[in-house]
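User: tokens in, sequence out, please.
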């Protein structure tokens, strides 16, 4: 494998996360990532003359536009393979504001890089990002359970959730406490670390919660590589420590948006449980 190919593989898990957040479906996102990778393999000039990650994400967004056009024209070649996805809203391109927000905040691209990826001018990127940030603050309040053993981090997570308008109903440093608090408070969002007090594990806590309840779990962890492995089933809601406030807010908003749809929630929960079951704890 060439040096470019090896470097490209390092970015694939992050591209898959981005695709999942953008489209609202891991299956849809993976389809677009596949098209993107096939395109840059067949036409390697797409990855020449600049930062490899920026060029890869630019190619991805070009591929997404191709997928959208193909579906909207009901091409026989793609319609059979993607027919179920059209019913899930793939025919409607996610708002441009969301694309800018995810690229700038979650992926950490600079304004000039976002402009290059989306083929926009920089003032337009700044305008769209400001609009997206305003929309992000208009979230409906939900009760939140925080599973985190570091007191300072738990306090910061609580502050951010309250800033978003949510209510923190409990903080747990151990698996058993987390389960008790969940039973008592019925949260509609869980923020969960992986490594907990006394060698307890947040993955096990999340599994036990998800086996009984349908609730979005956002992993806030220094061990994000355990979840962003590049495998087929990729939980999208992962925030790496140390985290930026806006990155957490965007991920929480996307998690809540996904679980607002019963069908999307059921699919995500099933895939996440399958993924977690394969991670050694």
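Assistant: Sequence out:
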């Amino acid at each position: 494998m060439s040096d470019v190919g090896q470097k490209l593989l390092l970015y694939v898990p992050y591209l898959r996360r981005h695709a999942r957040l953008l489209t609202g479906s891991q299956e849809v996102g993976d389809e677009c990532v596949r098209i993107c990778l096939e395109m840059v393999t067949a036409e390697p000039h797409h990855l020449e003359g600049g930062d490899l990650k920026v060029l890869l994400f630019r190619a991805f967004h070009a591929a997404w536009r191709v997928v959208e056009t193909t579906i909207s024209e009901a091409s026989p070649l793609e319609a059979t393979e993607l027919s179920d996805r059209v019913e899930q809203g793939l025919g409607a391109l996610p708002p441009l504001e969301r694309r800018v927000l995810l690229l700038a905040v979650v992926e950490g691209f600079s304004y000039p890089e976002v402009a290059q990826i989306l083929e926009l001018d920089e003032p337009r990127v700044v305008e769209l990002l400001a609009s997206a940030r305003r929309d992000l603050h208009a979230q409906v309040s939900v009760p939140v359970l925080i599973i985190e053993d570091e007191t300072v981090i738990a306090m910061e997570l609580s502050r951010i959730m309250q800033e978003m308008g949510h209510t923190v109903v409990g903080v747990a440093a151990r698996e058993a406490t987390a389960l008790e608090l969940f039973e008592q408070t019925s949260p509609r969002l869980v923020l969960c670390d992986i490594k907990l007090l006394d060698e307890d594990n947040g993955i096990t806590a999340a599994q036990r919660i998800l086996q009984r309840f349908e609730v979005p779990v956002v992993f806030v962890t220094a061990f994000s590589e355990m979840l962003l492995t590049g495998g087929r089933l990729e939980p999208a809601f992962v925030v790496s420590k140390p985290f930026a406030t806006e990155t957490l807010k965007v991920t929480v908003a996307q998690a809540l948006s996904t679980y607002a749809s019963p069908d999307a929630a059921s699919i995500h929960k099933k895939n996440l449980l399958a993924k977690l079951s394969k991670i050694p704890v």
